[in-house]
Amino acid sequence: MTAVVGTVGAKTQTRTAWLLLGVVALAWGINWPVGKAMLAYLPPIWAVALRSAVGTLALLMICAARGRLVVPKAGDIPVILSVGVLHMTAFSALVSLGLQFVPAGRSVVLTYTTPLWVVPGAWLLLGEPLTVRRLFGVGLGLLGLLLIFNPLTFDWHAERAVFGNGLVMLAALCWAASILYVRSHRWVTPPFELVFWQALLATGMLIPLALLHDGVPSIDWQPSLIGLLLYGGLFGIALAYWAVTTVNRVLPAATTSLGLLGVPVFGISCSAVVLGETISPALLGAIALILGGIVLGAWGRR
Q1: Residue 258 CA to chain centroid, in angstroms?
Q2: What's the CA gap between 95 and 73, in Å, rounded?
Q3: Side-chain-facing half-sphere of 197: CA atoms under 13 Å
Q4: I need a surface site. Which of 101, 186, 235, 244 has the fewest CB within 10 A?
């Protein structure tokens, strides 16, 4: 009886993780055109710093209201540093800087080369098997990404474009490292309680970085800017980072990275609608390949 209950509980936990993964894909997909739009009002580091501050405040209020505001234990420090530094700070700052030179659609595609680094990393560092389905799924997903970003047609002499694309690629590496550590971490405190501390650490790092890089900004507080900051903080940080941390705890790192390939689908679609970026036949084909890679690499796993 205990084994049956445990199996049912594990299945429920897995289904919940997949649901949260879908929520993250949608929230982060929308967050790309939101981040690009914020650059019309704010310097790049200030954009992510203020968004992080909003998310941190929201998480503080949620944790306090639910009685889940706790002091981290010593065993929590590595995962707080991993997510707070690598993902919430380095990833966010690098992407925001890159968005100055790279369209939102291309940026989200470059960022989701993350599986290219996560899958071999999970095999080498975590001992996760490289099954045929998983390899084929990754191959399809990456083929979809290459269909959108064709290095043979890229102008390698445009220094600003090369610099911007390089920043976004470096952001992808930072995120991959964070995913791998979170998957291997021995959890002491549940993920939800730690997201506030991760966001607080990121905000504490981003604000001084913004002052150093951008100086004191002159901000025109338009309603549209406030709406963008609220979305980025509440959904792009408070909801999404808690959800993705929970997903990383349940699903294998390679599966999580495959599932997150859904973010470019939403990100490119939203960028086309909101920012007027073109949806080409190649883009539609890439979306099909990405979704096919997710199905084969994740749902095909027994």
Answers
A1: 12
A2: 31
A3: 19
A4: 186
**What angle, 0 to 180 degrees and rounded to 10, lies between the N-to-C axes of helices 2-38 and 262-275?**
30
Residue 216 CB coordination number (10 Å): 8
Residue 217 burial class via C-beta count within 10 angstroms: exposed 0-12, middle 13-18, buried 19 and up: middle
Q: Cα 273 from chain centroid?
A: 21
Q: Which of 50-59, 156-165, 197-206 has the lowest mean pLDDT?
A: 156-165
Output the six-digit token pair for 13: 């936990």
> Tokens representing 214?
């951008």
Interval 74-128: pLDDT, tens: 999 999 999 999 999 999 999 999 888 887 777 777 777 776 677 778 788 877 7
Task: Count CB neighbours of 106 within 10 A.
Answer: 22
Measured CA to CA, the distance from residue 67 to residue 295 in angstroms comes to: 38
Distance (Å, whole) CA 277 – CA 104: 8
Hey, what are 199's tokens? 């966001």
Distance (Å, whole) CA 126 – CA 189: 21
Greatest Cα pair distance in the chain: 66
Full DSSP string of 90-138: IIHHHHHHHTTTS-HHHHHHHHTTHHHHHHHHIIIII-----HHHHHHH
